Amino acid sequence: MPRAENADEEVRPAPERRRRPTADDRMLTFHSRLRERGLKSTGQRDDIARVFFELRRHISAEELYAEVKKVNPHVGYATIYRTLKLLKECDLLFERHFDEGQARYEVAGEHHHDHFICDRCGKIIEFENDDLERMQRAIAQKMGVLLTHHKMELYGLCADCRTRQ
Length: 165
Ligand SMILES: [Zn+2]
Ligand SMILES: [Zn+2]
Description:
Layout: E1 3-5, H1 14-19, H2 23-36, H3 43-54, E2 59-60, H4 61-71, H5 77-89, E3 93-96, E4 104-107, E5 114-118, E6 124-127, H6 130-143, E7 153-156, H7 159-164
Parallel strand pairs: 5-7
Antiparallel strand pairs: 1-6, 2-4, 3-4, 5-6
Helix pairs in contact: 2-3, 3-4, 3-5, 4-5
The structure holds zinc ion (2 copies).
């Protein structure tokens, strides 16, 4: 089942959501990976990481900044940016570049999925398709290449924008 996501809309079925690690789990992982790197957790870093883990996915740095400000008004944009970089280095974040848009960040370690992006409203819908995955592996095999990862992005008008046309 596809998961529509823009504002606060989320249609993933509940049982699947419950199996996902909580923000607390991810904070523990974050702290242990910081320790591995000889880094300490700081109050600001923690506030940013927690908001990121708790929030909806595919968030831009500016959106995250606005959300973190509600929790900790002292956090500066540079700290947001550095923390996003750190989360990426800790393999806790995926950076996405959809079309020419600004970078968007989502929590890593979720099930593999691809994206549909609405050209009009910017809604991002996640999908998984076994046939598509199989076909990509078959293409790679035919070319004799070793596939490490892929990005599949579909663009167009979402169902809402279509009906509004
Ligand atoms: Zn749309
Ligand atoms: Zn995604």
